[in-house]
Amino acid sequence: YLVFYMLSVIITVFDEDVTVITECVASLTTLKNLKQIIVINDNPSRTLGNINFEKNLNIKLCEDNTNRGISGARNYGLQFVSEKFVMFIDADDKVCALNSNKFDLKNISRKIDIIYFNYVIKNEIDEIRVELTSNKEKLSLSGKSILLDYLNNCHSSSFFPFGWAKIYRTSFIKKNKIFFNEQLFQYEDID
Q1: What is the pTM of this model?
Q2: In what order do the strands lie in the sheet with 59-63?
Q3: Helix segments in 64-143, DSSP class H
């Protein structure tokens, strides 16, 4: 079973179709007892007010009319996070297959600030599966080791510098004043 009652999810939206956005939000129902979904619209020429989401979900729609890109939208969304952990996903992403794992955020050690998940990248032709959680050595890295691993492997599929497929401790982000760099465009949204 999965328990995510201490989790806020920030979804960034720009030009995605309403169907894509609602599918993304619906996929979050696999996160049992999810507490908060924050949808950030970064497109000043459209509004999200007319989208019908499932009524039992706690969804906060936020309009960020600054058009600062996905990094700016994520930074904007952080101010609305009320839970102990936060996860970032893009509107064209889906959360899947988590319900087959046993996972409870309340049992996470105070020493753990980032939790990595396996992921799949699909397009019309190909499917790439990356299983980070099967690599116990990589999961036990911390501090300088994480940075060195990233610098050595940032162009391989064994390490991914994306904001998604991870859960972050909110206090870790806020205490260390960690924000997405709004000037960077590499790895901003890899499909």
Answers
A1: 0.78
A2: 59-63, 36-41, 7-13, 85-90, 166-169, 114-116
A3: 69-78, 136-139
